[in-house]
Specification:
48% helix; alpha/beta; six-stranded parallel β-sheet; elongated; binds beta-D-fructofuranose
Length: 326
């Protein structure tokens, strides 16, 4: 008999319009397939608050055993998550946070550290006076505020580094292009741009390129995805000077969810590693990540084969039962 699915994991994702989210979902699916007793349901989302609230309501109504949420923004998603938690549903928050403490556990890289890594990196480059533009992620989403405070905290204490402008983005490349263009027209001699993620960093580079400034202004992003349009490639191509690794944690999220479901005691804060990626380590990291991708592909192929075998087995078995009049 096919193994009963005893646990249902429901994941409310922010949206899947970018590679980072897609690769997170992918890693979750691969990991979940290792546990036959688990059913993983991902509601993909549309980077929209109302839509995410509906998704979470739907997962609550389905009686998931554990709810994983990556909240678009903290404040508006907090009440519905609290409702689930107070109903007795286990809650694992990933990447972006909610407000308060009404959840089982959090998993993600330390975004304050992401910001300090970026600032310390710039501080390590030179003791000369340097002018910086900070490009911020979506207002009200925790990685944006934490990356900003980490970054600003170091810069304030580094006399030769000055933030001359801050631009509010929404994580997407299009959101910052006009404002950056205007800022560059009125602020000369900019040295560095720190963008809270690689998509906005790439948007910034496109603006610099249009203005012929791409050689003189150096960009630092965040995410460091591997792949054809990822941050690691942009570092290798010298489009970015550096990017700060921000792992998706898809695999780790499922592992942690399974521990919680099995009644194991887990830490409330589960922190993933981050690091600076620049020209010195981009090749090595690419090789490492390529190997992981290769292994993931192999695993997926194996999992597909097993599924096919299972299907064949069940049809054969049913035929046999019919033949035997069972
Ligand atoms: C992906 C993303 C990343 C960023 C993260 C912050 O949707 O925008 O680029 O690092 O979300 O939560």
């Amino acid at each position: 008999n096919k193994q009963e699915k005893t646990y249902k994991i429901g994941f409310s994702q922010t949206g899947i319009n970018d590679e980072w989210r897609k690769s997170m979902n992918q890693a979750m699916k691969i990991q979940a397939a290792f546990y036959p007793e688990i059913e993983l349901k991902i509601l993909e989302g549309q980077d929209d608050i109302d839509d995410q609230i509906k998704d979470i309501e739907a997962l609550i109504a389905e009686n998931v055993d554990i709810l994983i949420v990556s909240p678009v923004q903290a404040a508006p998603i907090t009440p519905i998550v609290e409702r689930a938690f107070k109903k007795g549903i286990q809650v694992l928050i990933v990447d972006r946070k909610i407000n308060g403490e009404n959840y089982t556990a959090y998993l993600g890289a330390d975004n304050y550290q992401v910001g300090t890594n970026a600032a310390n990196y710039l501080a390590s480059l030179s003791t000369e006076s340097k002018r910086i533009i900070e490009i911020k992620g979506l207002l009200g989403s925790s990685p944006a505020s934490e990356r900003s405070s980490g970054f600003n905290n170091i810069i304030t204490n580094t006399p030769n580094l000055n933030i001359v402008k801050r631009i509010q983005g929404n994580w997407e490349s299009y959101s910052i292009k006009d404002s950056l263009s205007r800022v560059l027209d009125t602020n000369k001699n900019i040295d560095y741009i720190f963008a809270h993620n690689d998509r906005m960093a790439l948007g910034a580079w496109e603006v610099l390129k249009e203005k012929g400034l791409e050689k003189s202004i150096k960009i630092v992003g965040v995410d460091g995805l591997n792949g054809p349009n990822g941050g690691i490639k942009h570092v290798q191509d010298q489009v970015f000077m550096a990017t700060i690794l921000y792992p998706t944690g898809g695999e780790e999220a499922i592992k942690l969810a399974v521990k919680i479901l099995n009644g194991e005691k887990v830490a409330k804060r589960n922190i993933l590693e981050t690091t600076v990626i620049d020209s010195r380590n981009a090749d090595i990291l690419k090789n490492q990540f390529d190997k992981i991708t290769q292994q993931q592909n192999d695993i997926e192929k194996q999992q597909d084969k097993i599924q096919l075998q299972e299907k064949i087995y069940f049809t054969q078995n049913n035929r046999l039962k019919i033949l035997l009049g069972l």
